[in-house]
Specification:
Its main location: membrane. By secondary structure, the chain is mainly alpha-helical. It has helices at 2-45, 62-69, 73-107, 113-121, 128-138, 145-152, 167-179, 181-193, 196-204, 209-220, 222-237, 241-247, 260-269, 279-306; strands at residues 48-51, 54-58. Strands 1-2 form a two-stranded antiparallel ribbon.
Length: 311
């Protein structure tokens, strides 16, 4: 009897391990085929010169040198990188700053706050393609809702997506509308983890909303802020769908909306206007984007986690 129980106790961990492997195997296979293999292929192809669709000669770091130092490729690379930096800074201020205020308002549990949580998060579930086409209609210079609303107050709206000075900002605005709900709920969840006794004690000491948010809640939100900041950075430097839908593959007008994602795709697969296609340079850009995102993310995580406070 005791021997049978021992055998059963030995078999249960093995069966559990096999069951876990069985459950993880499909996901691991998908990740290997669609993520790991393309990534490793990009690393390999970045060191070759291409003859059409076929790698021909091993050129070492030549593709990297061209996209970083040789004109006009380097001009396009740094221009796209500059726009990605602008997008990140704008989203940190506009999207995450607004999300912080909305989360604080929802924390107060005013009447209807649960409905407002759903309304705030609703645009997040929409496809980026739908959001892109929707905002192209909103920003249309002739019959768009934005210019019609401005006309009601006597203002003449510009061609938002047709001018270099307003095109990138218009796409950023659409992105803020699309993703605002995500950082709002992440920050709200972080606020709800803060002890109510801490907030009540600050209220009893006479702290107003501004003091409470900046002096009490903000330092205790460090884990949530780390998540939001890292995801905003990764999303900003992987930006592709909205610029592609709203401004096109060439980052029109005049390259004012060009970002690294568009430049990489245009270089690797060509476009109807440029006709340039170079898998070697495209793979080099993909590798550089991966190294940039991975490197900055690792450094940022290390720095942000130093200020995290145990709740």
């Amino acid at each position: 009897m005791i021997h049978d129980r021992r055998r059963l106790s030995d078999l249960l961990p093995r069966r559990r391990s096999l069951w876990i492997v069985f459950l993880l195997l499909p996901a691991a296979a998908i990740m290997s085929v669609f993520v790991a293999w393309p990534l490793l292929s990009a690393f390999r192809l970045a060191f070759y010169r291409f003859d059409g669709l076929t790698p021909s000669d091993f050129v070492g770091l030549e593709n990297f040198r061209q996209v970083l130092t040789e004109s006009p490729f380097s001009d396009w690379t740094w221009n796209a990188l500059h726009h990605n930096v602008i997008v990140f800074c704008a989203l940190m201020v506009l999207e995450n700053g607004t999300a912080l205020l909305l989360a604080f308002a929802l924390l107060k549990a005013l009447p209807g706050h649960r409905v407002h949580q759903v309304i705030v998060f609703l645009p997040v579930v929409l496809s980026s393609v739908i959001v892109g086409f929707l905002w192209k209609l909103f920003l249309h210079p002739l019959f768009g809702l934005v210019n019609q609303a401005l006309a009601l107050v006597g203002l003449h709206g510009p061609a938002w997506l047709g001018q270099e000075s307003t095109a990138l900002g218009s796409i950023i605005l659409a992105n803020v509308w699309h993703w605002l709900g995500f950082p709002t709920l992440v920050l709200l969840a972080g606020m709800q983890r803060i002890s109510k006794e801490v907030i009540e004690a600050a209220r009893l000491d006479g702290a107003g909303d501004g003091t409470l948010l900046l002096k009490i809640i903000w330092p205790l939100l460090a884990p949530s802020v780390t998540i939001v900041t890292i995801l905003t950075f990764i999303g900003s430097f992987n930006w592709f769908e909205l610029p592609y839908i709203m401004a096109g593959l060439t980052g029109s007008p005049g390259g004012s909306t060009d970002v690294l994602g568009l430049y990489f795709y245009r270089t690797a697969f060509g476009s109807t206007t440029t006709g340039i296609q170079d898998f070697g340079q495209g793979s080099a850009l993909a590798v550089l984007m991966f190294l940039l995102i991975a490197g900055v993310t690792a450094i940022a995580l290390r720095m942000l986690r130093r200020r995290e406070v145990e709740l």
